[in-house]
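Record type: monomer structure entry
Structure origin: computed from sequence
Chain ID: A
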Amino acid sequence: MASGRSWLLWDEAVTGYNFGPGHPMDPVRLALTMRLVEAFGLEQACEVLAMKPAGESTLKLVHRADYVNAVKRASARPAGADENYGLGTPDTPAFRGMHEVSSLIAGQSVGGAEAVWEGTTEHAVNFAGGLHHAMPGSAAGFCVYNDASLAIARLLELGAERVAYVDVDVHHGDGVQAAFWDDPRVLTISLHEHPRTLYPGTGWPEETGHGAGTGYAVNVPLPPGTGDAGWLRALHAVVPELLADFAPQFLVSQHGVDTHFDDPLAHLALSVDAQRAAMEACHSWAHSHAAGRWLALGGGGYAVVDVVPRSWTHLVAIAAHAPVEPETAVPEEWLAQVYALARMRGPARMTDGRRPAWRAWEDGYDPADPVDQAIRACRRAVYPAHGLLP
């Protein structure tokens, strides 16, 4: 049985994960999230801890040695970054100290996973993590080291036999899927915008794993414009049944918030309120299916003032068993910090004014609804491998 309060993994140095001016992944989103967590006093509801950076032996649980060496070279001399390793590209520019800060972010997720597995704490949150596009041998999509995959690999090394990974970022969780493509010990579920319309162009229902891992990669690609009701219907139509069948010992979830209607890089139409509902669902699933063992990560999200801080503050609050009611006003002290750091006006409340509701899958299939078509395609692709009815 876990002891102590939930952990929030935080080191101010993670804001050094900075691809430079004009890049969408502005580290101010991390700083503003932590300042909002503090403005609500949530650091009193959980343990705020910094873990040590992931060392080479940990990084090599997922990443190839030649890639780690390439990151180190680019970190010391960004101008010499090797694009063959996905470094120095417009998406993932090289910057000085890149290896060190990427290792630090990975170390937070790995250390959090270890603590939860060992029973030191029940839940751990690393909203600087969730860098799910990094591949074993290359950087991709703003991601250098894949902290989610590294945390899962460490859990397997510690003896976990079944780890579930649920990814609700708007982009397909391709790097985590690739890392465990043929491993039946890891169930990866990704809910994302359709690959026809968004990077990385993968995450089709037919991508179900390989060999012994067939049926353990699950993809729900949703049409552009999908809003709260359809997205939550899809989440609940797929995830709970698979978790109940898989019986994970640990749940890792990635909470990229680029699904929001204000996000500049994608085309779904979720509210902060629907994102919060998904966080509550993952928390509930951790307790009902994984003995409460939960590592919650951040991910994408490029509306860096209006969306990211509110949504991830809800994530921290939910994991700390101290939820912030959606109608709560945003503290004035935080709004002053927003203006100081970003020269923008911040949002007034912790809600977008929505009350998400969705129709259960059991209530019937609508063949004319593209969301229902996506759900049906996913269930047909993977449910038979688990002995479940599609």
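Annotation 1: Strands lie at 7-9, 47-49, 123-126, 163-167, 186-193, 217-222, 250-254, 294-297.
Annotation 2: DSSP finds eleven helices and eight strands in the chain.
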